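seq as requested:
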Amino acid sequence: MIGGISYSDGQFDDARLALNLAQTTAEYGGVALNYMKVTGLNKEGGQVNGVSFTDLESGKLYSLKAKVVVNATGVFVDEILKMDLPSGKQIVRPSQGAHVVLDKSFLQGNSALMIPKTSDGRVLFAVPWHGKVLVGTTDTPLDEHSLEPKPLDEEIDFILSTAGKYLTKVPSRSDVLATFAGLRPLAAPGKDTNSTKEISRSHKLLTSKSGLITITGGKWTTYRRMAMDVVDKAIELGKLPAASCITENVKIHGYTPEIDESSLGIYGADAQGIRRLMVEEPELNAFVYPGYDYLKAEVIWMVRNEMARSIEDVLSRRMRLLFLDAKGALLLAPEVASIMADELGKDAKWVESQIEEFKNLVKQYLLS
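struct tokens:
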């Protein structure tokens, strides 16, 4: 018997939601710092009472006092825990998920495809995403992790060969527009295992003797519950005043009840601000590069309102083009650098170094 089922699910842009959450933090009185690297935990009487960190742009060192310090750093929680207790046991086992991006012609229609059984016993998805098709993912346990994880050749081959059995045409490596990998901060198992199936996806909350609160594991679908659990734990420890949790009803920055089908729709309510910018500065009402639906006004908006400081910030973390069409991102890079340089007051040397750094980064997203 041959059959199938259809069901509904949700889709979102992880980087944009993370950015909108930072903006929401600011709207509720918080301060979001970009390009700051924590270098140490400050203590008094054996209790953590702040952090030391470095401004990665200026190299300046800072020290900040805090009533409570929360370690919510994903796959990097162990690095922070080592600052607290160097002899501590590793609590995270990173797992890598690789993806490839193909032209939309490989999956005709607007419905995603879920392949329920693959050769390694997992599911594989082909999902319409920003006008392309995102195919993945793998689940590869790692002993190490990095800031720029890279898909393994065997992961790419597995995705292409498996997806080729179900897509409208069989993809080859030359069809891949971009490839990238993400890391999952899975809780480390109590026994030696190389199977991520045996590692919990639920989040875990830990409190060190020093008072450092660590949250690890979890996923985007439960982030509000994770935040609530962290704050409730801080209240329980007497580090924050008691208060009822309001996250259930908090609307994220950019919320709007209307659906905007235009290319600016991903900005939500901020789309109106970008449109006003194009009226106030008409020269920004132009595309960054012919054939690509990205406006110069978006670049300025990202610098002024979204803490963008580099080409990578714009083309990778905000426009997402590096993840969709790596070669296309290279085409936009020079103009993006020029626009940003004018806005940030940078010189030609900065533009040149930005373009060179971005060229090197793009190599990781292209298949040789």
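Residues 92-187 form a domain with the D-Amino Acid Oxidase; Chain A, domain 2 fold (CATH 3.30.9.10).
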